[in-house]
Amino acid sequence: MGQLSLAQSKLTLSDAIQIALQNNYQIKAYKSLQELKELNNHPGNAGMLPTVALNGGLGVASNQTRQEFSNGQTVNRNNAISQNNSAAIDLNWTLFDGLKMFAIKDQLSLQAIQSQIEYRQQVQNTVAAVILNYKNIVKQNEALKAYAEVMKVSEERIRFITQKIALGNGNKLELLQAKLDLNSQKSIYQTQALQLLQAKVQFNQTLGINPSKDNLFVDSLAFQFQGTYDSLRSMSLLKNTKLTQLANQILIRKKELQASRGNYFPAVGLNVSYGYTRVKNQVGFLLFSTNLGFNALLSANWTIYGGGVLKRGIAQRGIEITIAELAFQEQQQWIEGELKVGWEMMKQSQNLLTLEENNYEMAQEALSIAMEKFRVGLISNLDLMTVQNSFVQAGARLAAARYQVSEASTRLMLLDGSLIRTE
């Protein structure tokens, strides 16, 4: 293992979460999306503000002109120049559209809120992934320690049997078996070490740091949920990010329906213009003219019949609201089921953890006693090997039990939306 890793630095679970929140690419993407939605949440995007435009033009024409008038006068002019210059500032403003603009503005606000919820959900998912991956590495590392401890015992067995053979009391078959056991343990150790290294590299990639960095994972205790079932249930039905997202989606659909209904009413608009025009001709009745002034137009537009498009659109919005409400109800039901299963899983995992902690202490003590008895010849090589295997299995079960408690607790805290507040 030492050949596969670099110098280690301590990494707590809290530090890992903070690093992931700063570096995770998905979080950055959702943060940018949230900023985009907040930028879009503007009255101008809802059509509530006027548009102001500055227009201008410069026209020049050169024509061959022949004109005959009723008094007998004739004008025949080649390359007659005409100039037409204009400049104006125009304002267009929708004063009333059946309150559709207000519904659209509310919709933009709800979409901004939706992006905040989605960002929070991504943060929680990332935190959950960091916790579980961190605890998985701890689990594998604890199993590796157990194998290392057993290998020390096996090496001690070999030394002791070798000494007995040198004194004429040993059994070569026992020595060969002890060496075979040690080699088997080394093989398992190397395989476990490689799996641990791979898990660490993948974890570093999740954190967005150098994949070759070898951290020392120091938080070996189980990550445990604190709280009662009643508080968990009430907070889950109130703060669950997916449920909150679906509830907000219902509001968005209702605002879309309100905006569609606004098309039943007339649209009233105001157009105001202040402009200047200048006309100059070398021939014709009008040789020179200028205009400078103000114009205003109040207009109305009302679609009386549009082929039933509006009616069908409103019916479609109503169906979309029903679908959103059904999704919300389904999520509520799913949360209730997850709460039942998750709570029982956590309680059983905690009970199992207590049991395995006791088992591990007994296995440690048994291994120590067995080694002492082996030294004085009170137990056989086979008996010691059996105790060794029991110790390895106890260590693996303890690490797995700690991981199960962390997994169950993380699952519950994802439900009630409290995972972010834990750090």
Describe this structure in words.
- The structure is a single chain.
- With 423 residues, the protein is of the alpha+beta class.
- The chain folds into 2 domains: 8-41 and 97-265 and 309-422, Outer membrane efflux proteins (OEP) (Up-down Bundle), CATH 1.20.1600; 50-96 and 267-301.
- 62% of the residues lie in helices and 18% in strands.
- It has 8 helices and 6 strands.
- The strands form 2 sheets. A 4-stranded antiparallel sheet has the order 2-3-5-6, with no helix packed on it.
- A hairpin with a 6-residue loop joins strand 5 and strand 6.
- Helix 3 runs antiparallel to helix 6.
- It is elongated.
- The chain starts with 7 loop residues before the first strand and ends in an 8-residue tail after the last helix.
Outline:
The chain has eight helices and six strands, in the order E-H-H-E-E-H-H-E-H-H-E-E-H-H. The protein is an alpha+beta fold.
Spans with pLDDT under 50 lasting ≥5 residues? 1-6
Shape: elongated
Total count of domains: 2
Beta-strand level of the residues, as a percent range?
15-25%
Strand order across the biggest sheet? 2-3-5-6
Question: The CATH topology of the largest domain is what?
Answer: Outer membrane efflux proteins (OEP)
Biggest sheet record = 4 strands, antiparallel
For the record, the CATH architecture of the largest domain stands as Up-down Bundle
What order do the helices and strands follow? EHHEEHHEHHEEHH
Radius of gyration: 40 Å
Structural class: alpha+beta
- Which percent range fits the helix content? 55-70%
Q: Count the helices. How many?
A: 8
Give the integer mean of the pLDDT values.
Answer: 88
The beta-strand count equals: 6
